[in-house]
Amino acid sequence: MKQIENNTIISLKDIYVEFDGEVILNHINLDFKDKEFVTILGPSGCGKTTTLRVIGGFLEPNEGEVYFDNKKINGIPPHKRNVNTVFQKYSLFPHLNVFDNVAFGMRIKKIPKDEIKKRVREMLAIVDLKGYEKRNVAKLSGGQQQRVAIARALVCDPKVLLLDEPLGALDLKLRKNMQWELKQIQQKTNTTFIYITHDQEEALTMSDTIVVMNNGVIEQVGTPTEVYNEPQNAFVADFIGEANIINGVMIDDCRVRVLGVELECVDKGFGQNTPVDIVIRPEDIEIVEPDTVPLTGTVTDVVFKGVHYEITVICNHCEWIIHSTESAKIGDRIGMKVIPFNIQIMNKMFDKPYNTFEAEVVYSNEQENTITIKLEDSEIDIEGHFFEVGTKIRAILPPNALSIAGDGVGDLNDVYIESVIFKGEHNEIILESDNQKWLMQSDQDEQVATYVPLKFDFTKARFQVVEGDT
Do residues 306 and 316 touch, judged by C-beta distance below 8 A? Predict the structure, then answer.
């Protein structure tokens, strides 16, 4: 038996899930500590609800093991796990009052009536519904219905409560109130809460630990402060709060070049002249006189947001966002001061050679100077190059040689958009086809977790004959 850390109540080991050939969870490993409020955060389609279903027993993984209190629980049905679930649709029984809804599970377990009465009243007090026992659930507000659903799930004393976006159906003001109430309920009951959301504010407000997921993998696990202040990559920085994410080069330890300017930072160990992503939060930029700092720019927009001004600045053709309690005028030339501690350096998300592939020439016409190559399931015509049929070539494409086909027909079709991150000058988009990932630059906003046709501009490509071929 694998040993699990003492305060770990649930452990996922190498969990792999796929549906119809599509990978949903890609060998994730994750531990949940007892009595913690853990939020799994990520965009639609990232795998967070599938993770919850695996924990709850509603879905068996294709591979991997699930442990509860150091015991493997693969194959154990949901009703035999010491776990309850609250869904976005609360699934209350409309013909039963509040008391009977909360008592339903205990009656199924044939718990004595006096014990049921005592525990229901205690639980209703915890969720602030004391005195509502005889109310018709259909006449309750959305927030009250949610608290009934939580009371029903908690009254049977599960060690873990799973919550699948339970605030999604509530209006903004009620949702904010319920965030605080959920945290209070979790602390009063000493129950482990595993909460699913795509709302970063919910995660930052309620959680002891945040798990950030994307495209079936875990990008980062940490406290709200760690995830916000020390994101591990550009996806996390972009998804949690607002951030200026800029391409840079780590010159050496504690020295980075960004937009042609060298700045001091506190990060080490990236090597020399290493391409990196640089993250600077808008609130960490101070507006100063332009002749006092190396980073300067021109103000292009100012919006008052109540507690601060959101100021857009163009610096070396790159768009920056500043949050400041002091305003500026459109057209002003300003300096942007950032202390070294607030410059976060991260490895590139795309750490392998991108847009490089090998393919065999399946047709060639020397007179017309054209070839056709076989790439994955597509045959692609390339003009302006000639290689003999059967030659294996390597093509190298820069990010600006890729685009999404406007006519719906691409060189590769059904390519999955994995992430879209604004880098000040353009969006940097990572896509995935059957056999590899692709990096594209675009001025257009694209929708994550969608499938698109991908077009290549081979006039920007470099071609090499793979060694051993002629």
Answer: no
DSSP states of 218-253 as a string? EEEEE-HHHHHHS-SSHHHHHHSS--EEEEEEEEET
CB neighbour list of residue 350: distance below 8 Å, 6 or more residues apart? 430, 437, 439
Sign of the Cα pseudo-torsion (222, 225, 230, 234, in order): positive
Which residues are 452's β-sheet partners? Answer: 415
CA atoms within 13 A on the CB side of 330: 4
Q: What angle do CA 55, 57, 58 make, to 5 degrees?
A: 110
User: Helix count (H) and strand count (E) of the chain?
Assistant: 8, 30
**Model confidence over 187-198: pLDDT tens digits?**
988 999 999 998
The whole-number average pLDDT for the span 100-113 is 88
Tell how strand 160-164 and strand 83-86 pair up: parallel
- Per-residue pLDDT tens digits for 109-137: 888 999 999 999 988 888 888 888 899 88
Backbone φ and ψ of 355, nearest 5°? 55, 30
Whole-Å CA distances, 217 to 121, 454, 463: 42, 24, 33
- Calpha distance 145→72 (Å, rounded): 34
For residue 372, what are its two tokens? 């056709």
**Assigned token pair, 129:** 């519904």
Tell me the per-residue pLDDT of 337-391, one tens digit each, with 9 for 90 and over.
999 999 999 988 776 678 999 999 999 999 999 999 999 989 999 999 999 999 9
The pLDDT of residue 457 is 95
